[in-house]
Amino acid sequence: MTQPAEAMILDLLSKLPPGKSIGPEEVARAMDSDAWHRALPRVKEAAKGMARAGALVILRHNKPADPDRFKGVWRMRLP
């Protein structure tokens, strides 16, 4: 279930100025500061689903990335 991750992503993104982005580790740390590494897969799955639905944009090298094909370091921002 990714609903807590989705809610945290939206909460953190809503606090940013337009055009700014966040990394998945920021979301994971906000969800569970002690075991944030374990939350990273949930954050990634939530972000992928939200990107497919058009609720956010996944970025690689500061450019939009395909939510089904990206690898490596990534960030997310509101569309």
What is the chain-wise order of helices and strands? HHHEEE
Biggest β-sheet strands, sense, barrel: 3 strands, antiparallel
Count every helix, treating DSSP H or I runs of 4 or more residues as helices: 3
Point out poorly predicted stretches: none
Strand content: 5-15%
**What CATH architecture label applies?**
Orthogonal Bundle
What is the total tally of β strands?
3
The average pLDDT score comes to 95
Classify the fold: give the CATH topology: Arc Repressor Mutant, subunit A
What would the principal axes of the Cα set say about the shape? globular
Termini gap: 23 Å
CATH class: Mainly Alpha
* CATH-assigned homologous superfamily: Winged helix-like DNA-binding domain superfamily/Winged helix DNA-binding domain
- Rg, Å, rounded: 11 Å
- Looking across the biggest beta sheet, what order are the strands in? 2-1-3
Helix- and strand-based class? mainly alpha
- In helices, the fraction of residues equals 40-55%
Q: How many separate structural domains?
A: 1
